[in-house]
């Protein structure tokens, strides 16, 4: 039985659809009730639903054999897992954004609001730009509007929220998508099962890479 950690919410539903297409359905999925665990003994899979930012932790620590996490989470957390496949769903961007007309003043530290502290620090470190990091977890677009920060580093999907709040992208740091990851020990001891899953996901209509 492969234990598979999937993210709750819209991404999890999209990803489950991919697994189902590949021949790994589970009755009751996705999220038809308040259950967190679904399994299909015949297919040899047990799914459990967790907060998207927790998927990599479940996989890294062996509670899950494999899981699906956004590449933004993997960049931020840098977990000790194997990245096996780009599922080519959940596509968006990690970007720097600011109020329209913003001009950076390099003589002062740049105030950066974000929930991606490690990504932001690494990005500006490479550019030798001194920053003041402001940790936020919701409505990050408000920070520059209210003068709390100069810029934000955040996930951008359509960009509509930015436009509606007089903000715009300054720089795209990285393209993001959902990735299949594996626990290192599970990859060794459940190699056949994981290889079969990867092959099925690669072979489904639309493919993956």
Summarize the structure.
This protein is α/β, with parallel strands linked by helices and 209 residues long.
Can you lay out the helices and strands and say which pair or pack?
Layout: E1 2-7, H1 10-21, E2 37-40, E3 45-50, H2 55-60, E4 66-70, H3 71-77, E5 82-86, E6 92-99, E7 110-114, H4 117-126, E8 131-135, H5 142-145, E9 151-156, H6 160-164, E10 167-176, E11 178-182, H7 184-189, H8 191-203
Describe this structure in words.
By secondary structure, the protein is an alpha/beta fold. The protein folds into two domains: 2-90 and 177-203, 3-Layer(aba) Sandwich (D-Maltodextrin-Binding Protein, domain 2); 92-175, 3-Layer(aba) Sandwich (D-Maltodextrin-Binding Protein, domain 2), CATH 3.40.190. Helix content is 30%, strand content 31%. It is built from eight helices and eleven strands. The protein has helices at residues 10-21, 55-60, 71-77, 117-126, 142-145, 160-164, 184-189, 191-203, and strands at residues 2-7, 37-40, 45-50, 66-70, 82-86, 92-99, 110-114, 131-135, 151-156, 167-176, 178-182. The chain has a six-stranded mixed sheet with strand order 2-3-1-4-11-5. A five-stranded mixed sheet has the order 8-7-9-6-10. A hairpin with a 4-residue loop joins strand 2 (37-40) and strand 3. The longest helix has 13 residues, at 191-203. It is elongated, with a radius of gyration of 19 Å. It starts with a strand and ends in a 6-residue tail after the last helix.
